């Protein structure tokens, strides 16, 4: 029987949630036994290759590319999980939701202390994804099946959730594992 | 701040006996004189009255008619209620903005004009309507609005705004020397109790010949229930109040009339002030109060002088003051308390807060006003119309009153009818009258919906037109807004939610937050981005807000959504989409990218637009 | 009268109480936890958060302001009321800007603790991301309105316990906000030792320069669910 396939991505996050996944220590060996990884920063596969059983999303959506990736995950993943506070509520990047988008662009490309931009214009380079006018939690963009809060969620949280999901159960976290910090 | 402003503020405090419970009057007076209540003035008032500055600022920031921003010498408040929007208030707004070169919420650089929106100003039968300071301008079309503003611009110093604005007086007492208003009464159907021809004074004389307990018994036998919306038995409320602590008690008449679409109390105040004051006097006698307050909504300030005049006439006739009608031991007088633009202040405990010079936050209950109300004393709060029934009950007998209307809902009801019908105005009908009968009377041509009881009431469709207007079926404080073919019930519901969001005091979580969330989801559905699950979301959220809110505002604010979900469900369903690929239909990608596209000057790479 | 006891029923269990108590006090004395946020021992009840909503003879009432009366039949820990309370907690999260990951109160915050006790992994409402003013003017106190739940605990504690009037309310509706008795906090007689500052259930009022004295993970509600001192928590209560 084929092993369940897992895919992960970091959208507008800091990779902290992925680091936390690595923090499960030697259980990672068990995990590699149990599952096959599709698209994932660990294996550097850049596009989802086929149907996936469990998708883990770190980070919220701050630009069009994030939306694109998230939609791709939703299409391919049977179960999609928002991992970490950024995916769930925008997290630290969502602080910019309190600042008008124009000011964000100007700070980044025109006025910031380390900016050297002789053109004096906000770049229209297609390599730079367009920003959404605010950072949006993943579940406001696509349907999300489960949420694992935390900044990052602890390795134990991730492990508990993953093993439950692999066993076909919804992750029911005990009190100690629901944390927003 | 200049010493002159300080001195002026001090003088105004002195005029009010340096009484901190008169803070609302003081602030209104200072603002009238200085156009604003800035930090300096707030500091001066706080020091003079011996209250924390944060409390003065808290009151200033609560009421729509007060503010620390400088306002123009002429503040134009255009009514944004549904009946006004139905007849083009937005076009009027455009006209005003263009003539004055400012947007709503702004003041002209020369400090002459301020443009603001107002919640319903009680003129729905003559919409669009606006207030120019205290002066009501009904039937204000876009052309007339432009002409009026152009004319006002020619007169830099306006001594008598009323004279300049009002070209033609309305009917009845609207042409009285102390009113001089363009407002029309539009009395379409006088009934037996309030708008009938009557001789004044008989009820009061009869009451004073009885004991207070007998008066209360008579009102109970008549089965009079409150006309302000809640329908509480009036006699029972008086009994509770009378059972409160001995000593000073208060009778407060609720003339806040803030429920959008309601204007019947305005007509009563214009045409039957003696009946009302007589009713207040009898009520005072019944509950053992020597002081009455008339809480007059700020929008009706144009009636104040006239009402003061009627009061002083009554004093002259011995109908108010010491020993009313020569009855030794019964002293009663009435003070008018002006409101300052806050719907929630119609809620009786908020109304009391407001009379005490506080923010208009409702109070926790218990204690109820009957136990501890105004200034901590037993207080009965009654609606204008309720109090007007009282002298008639005394005069004509409780049996007569109870024979009008239906068994559980005795007497008549004043209805304020507006919207898509040919005969807008006030109707006095027996309680128990079918909605359809009223729709026929007012010339409503095949209406698709009727808002019964204002936004806090119900929006009903033709299936409900046979229902009766009474306390146990279609209850209403008096507003009926008729919607004809082509009106969109969901758009109306959204406008009503905007009203509640604007008027919530914000004290409690469900009302402060829940109404914002209800409107977000309703508007999302209206924009074609809702799915079937959103209807359940609205239903559950609406019920949560109703159940958990602290006062009647939040307990009824979801009604526009809940009643349209019931009566116009197919209108919702027609707008729903079925999302594909696990997408959230509520996510508006185009909208969220629009600003970045404008700033970068390019389209989306990923979504090819 | 004061010696008399009143019997009422909470979720089918009879409890004895004294007249003059509120439902919240009476149930607490009987070892029944009614979730609450704006209520604080030693302060007059305020009744703003509505998290303590119970059904009294079928009618919703705030337990913290409603006095007991003989024969009351009270519903507290029911499916319906748990859902309602959860919704209210969700509302408080989405109406503010609660970035717990960098809030010094995290782990000691009563709002967060309620969410933990109710097992909330993500709120059921969209985030509103309001613009709210922060006041760092005072040498010893931060006021970050992004985290304010308008519970008035600071307002009451300042008046009732500190004998001051440092805090009050301004605005109404969604624009309601906490205000201070001066241009800003520095221009008031507030002190970092005020009971008003300690009364804040969230990270809206914080004392400066004592941050993270207890590390995250070892704070009050990291140890045990809020309300456990009254009644241990079952999951999602
Ligand atoms: C938000 C709100 C606004 C209200 N506005 C009014 C009002 O404008 N006039 C009024 O008479 N009652 C109003 N009421 C009802 C009053 O609280 C109170 O029940 C009424 O004044 C009692 O008088 P009655 O018994 O004669 O009806 C309002 C209630 C709420 C909750
Ligand atoms: S329901 Fe609550 S927030 Fe709304 S007006 Fe009443 S007390 Fe204020
Ligand atoms: S600052 Fe804190 S204590 Fe004061 S109202 Fe806000 S949350 Fe409550
Ligand atoms: S604890 Fe009762 S309303 Fe907040």
Tell me what the structure shows:
The complex is a heterotrimer of chains A (181), B (609) and C (237). With 181 residues, chain A is of the alpha/beta class. Helix content of chain A is 31%, strand content 19%. The model of chain A has no long low-confidence stretch (mean pLDDT 94). Chain B is α/β, with parallel strands linked by helices and 609 residues long. Chain B folds into five domains: 4-62, no CATH class; 74-167, Glutaredoxin; 188-402, Rossmann fold; 413-483, Ubiquitin-like (UB roll) (Roll); 489-573, NADH-ubiquinone oxidoreductase 51kDa subunit, iron-sulphur binding domain (de novo design (two linked rop proteins), Up-down Bundle). Classes of the chains: A alpha/beta (181), B alpha/beta (609), C alpha+beta (237). Chains in contact: A-B, A-C, B-C. Chain B binds chain C through residues 39, 52-55, 57-58, 61-62, 342, 344, 359-361, 364-366, 501-510, 512-514, 516-517, 520, 540-541, 544, 547-550, 586, and chain C through 45-51, 53, 60, 62, 65, 67, 84, 87-88, 91-92, 94-95, 125-126, 128, 149-150, 165-176, 179-183. One iron/sulfur cluster (SF4) binds at residues 148-154, 178, 199-202, 204-205 of chain C.
Question: Which helices and strands occur, and which strands form pairs?
Answer:
The complex is a heterotrimer of chains A (181), B (609) and C (237).
Chain A: E1 5-10, H1 16-22, H2 27-34, E2 36-37, E3 52-58, E4 61-63, H3 64-76, E5 77-83, H4 85-89, H5 101-111, E6 131-136, E7 146-148, H6 155-166
Parallel strand pairs in A: 1-2, 1-3, 3-5, 5-7
Antiparallel strand pairs in A: 4-6
Chain B: H1 3-15, H2 23-34, H3 39-49, H4 53-60, E1 74-79, H5 82-86, H6 89-100, E2 113-118, E3 130-132, E4 135-137, H7 142-153, H8 161-165, E5 187-189, H9 202-208, H10 212-221, H11 234-243, E6 250-255, H12 264-271, H13 273-287, E7 291-296, H14 304-316, E8 333-338, H15 348-355, E9 379-383, H16 384-396, H17 398-403, E10 412-419, E11 425-430, E12 433-434, H18 435-441, E13 449-452, E14 458-460, E15 468-469, E16 479-483, H19 489-503, H20 509-526, H21 532-548, H22 552-556, H23 559-567, H24 569-573, H25 589-600
Parallel strand pairs in B: 1-2, 5-11, 6-7, 6-9, 7-8, 10-16
Antiparallel strand pairs in B: 1-3, 3-4, 10-11, 12-15, 13-14, 13-16
Chain C: E1 6-10, E2 13-17, H1 23-29, E3 53-56, E4 59-62, E5 73-75, H2 79-95, H3 110-117, E6 134-135, E7 141-144, H4 153-160, E8 167-170, E9 177-180, H5 195-199, E10 205-207, H6 220-223
Parallel strand pairs in C: 1-5
Antiparallel strand pairs in C: 1-2, 3-4, 3-5, 6-7, 7-10, 8-9
The complex binds flavin mononucleotide, iron/sulfur cluster (2 copies) and FE2/S2 (inorganic) cluster.
